[in-house]
Amino acid sequence: MSKKLISLILVLALVFSIALVGCQKDEPAPVGGEADDKQSANEEKPKEPENPALARGNVLTFGESSLDGLFNPIMGSNVYDGYINDLIFRGLASNNTAGDPTPMVAKDWKLSDDGKTYTFYLNEGIKFHDGEELTAEDIEFTYYTMADPDYTGPRWSAVADVVGAQEYRNGEVDSIEGIKIINDYTISFTVKDVNAAKFGAGDFGYGILPKHYYKFENFEDFTALNQKPMGCGPMKFVNYVVGQYVEMESFDDYFDGRAKLDGVIFKIVPDETKAAQIQAGEIDVAQLTADPKQVEIATKSNLATIHQQVGNGYNYASFNLRLDKFKDKRVRQALMYGLNRQKFIEVVYQGYARPCNTAVSPVSWAYTDNVNKYDFDPEKAKDLLKEAGWEDRDDDNWIENEDGEEFTIMWTTYTDVEWPQKLIAVAKENWKDIGIQLDCELMEFTAVDNKTRNERDFEMYNMGWSLSIDPDPTGIFDGASDVVGGYNCGGFHNDEAEQIIAEGKLEMDTEKRKKLYQRWAEIANEELPYLFLAYRDELFAINNRVKNLNITPYETWVYYINEVEVEY
Amino acid sequence: MRQFIIRRILQSIPVLIGISIFLFLIVHAAPGSPTAHVIDPKMTPDERARIEAKMGLDKPLPVQYLNWITEILRGNMGQSTKYGQPVKDVIKEHMWNTFYLSIVSLILSLVIGIPIGIISATKQYSGLDYGFTIFALFGLSIPAFFFALILILIFSVNLKLLPISGMVTPGNPISFSNFKDIAWHSVLPAIVLGLGSCASFMRYTRSSMLEVIRQDYIRTARSKGLKEKVVIYKHALRNALIPVITLLGFQIRFLFSGALLTETVFGWPGMGKMGYMGVMYRDYSLILGVNLFLAILTLIGNLLADILYGVADPRIRYD
Description:
Chain A is an alpha+beta fold.
């Protein structure tokens, strides 16, 4: 017996010794802090700094889980590629904490009296990273590219409403009537219909591409530059090592002044060890999963602090409103009352979320608290179901309608993340108490998307939305989006909402728009096109050596990169 | 021998055509399309349909297949929709990373697995044998994911000896000049990846060795008065290695196919993770390109194994 034990120990020792042998032979390069020959100042630092991140010098390292490598502001659709694009490129306008547009490449703009022509006055002397000056031609080029017949990127919507863009795309005309260069530093866009949501939708925020560099003679050559981006932003692209990191350095001639940092590195780190890397100081900033365990790991070494904010989005479960059983809003309200969302949030998000009751996020200027909170109330749920004609007619604890059909729900969900399955477990239990049988079918995300949006063959499914700054719900809740492939896959139609959506686009007065969308929030809360679930919190872990890194729901930190400082 | 090789290569052509058709059908049978990952209410169904038509996805499947296979024969594997680059470049960027990690772990597992398999067989039912068997069971049954996280916790987070993830320190290139940095980053992933195959090499060697040393010719060799070392390492081992060579032949494919879980936990930019992302994003050209590439490697691997049999065992002849 003891012999066996000894051999087991020997074997385990063998396994681990491989690693140890490696340690002794190789020179143990301090993790994350490569020996930098150029900076002799580093050598004077104590051998083991308390914060290992200090050894990285005046460079900010952001940890994120994946990159597509589409470093082109009108090609990428991934959030993380977006960070890099926002650092290398700058658009006509940006926005502030309140979500209002602020000058960027354009120092000012004017909207014509009929509300259809936007004239932009550009800052003079803006330089691209190769030293060439930015002019109105580059703006024109960027927006022409989005309308090009050969362009297959995701940004057509930014020019779709410009006069003549559709004709240009169809190949009927050689130029877009609605885009006019007035002089080197002035350009105007004329749209077909007044759209108050245009700035808030980000249409004027896309980074400007230098015409002399990108050319767009054909789409292949254009995409070949995806991993060699060049713009006029505060950071210059240096290097991308696939699946590992993106290296950028500060651009000396940035029109708003050189950044205080020397550069930014985006390091790709697995979600599984992101918090551990914050703990070890291997990365300076990372967005964490909203989970107390992650927070505990990240802050264990006291090297980092957590920034927490309510995100501009929500999680929901959509009903298929074409089905008879979901047509009555009392049934939908009963399902809301009958679900213990507070408990679900406690179980799954453990404090990093709050119940959501309507389609507008609390961070939006259109948010109103004047909505029904749908606190957990099974009795009320039963009453509502009874009113709607659903009650237990044969004493089997399940409710039936007049025809004796039992109320069953099939919930379609995906296994890519954990929360839907935990939610369904809570819902199954809760709804059983009000006499409704819940079953679920599991698949992967793209299959759910296909089944709901393209085939529209479902009863309920869940997903989440990240919203744009403007509260205009076009594309999600308008009748026109209830088509195969559209995002109104539940089939929500409401006349008053339809009218608000139309009026909201025409109304230029922010106060009046606010009233309109607050009314929309009340309608959504009353009519319940979705079972609204939770507003998620967003968590960022930030190493204590980083100063002035501002993160708000509407502004990513990359907007303010110039102010960010690190100790080193 | 030459005839044999030529015949095998000719035989693999219809196999490859079959594989390509099968792959193509499977990929297109999956729900969703390459534009599905653009989740944006501003992306209208019309615009989506236009983009898909630009990619040729509006044509009937047989036409799409013919278009694809013609381009493949011309050496064009198409454009990856997820990575926005030619598929050929995407594969090239990832395959050597995977190859490096796989070869290190393969050598590690051969160097450890075969000798302990031999020792286990010659000292059957000894304490050492039991020890190694427990090790093999441990290696085969422990989930790579879990083992990887344990190693990271011990060696990277607590002892701070090794990096937590990645292939290089940010700022350093993936190249020979940076070999030390890469080697340093590959210690843990190579151990995790090597453990499983090390255990199976050990088990295979042990059982086939046990079979061989009971053969008559081994008894003959012993009765001739040969030294035990010569008996085991010259006469027995060569025959015992044949199943191991089969296993090695299969490994050629794994040298390039990568290991999804290990790559994911360690943030290693290899083929496993890349192929998985291709599937999740319905990146048709990429999935097809990667799988066709691996299919060819599998065929080559099998052919090489067949040839190596002859080297290990002169009784096997191909005429």
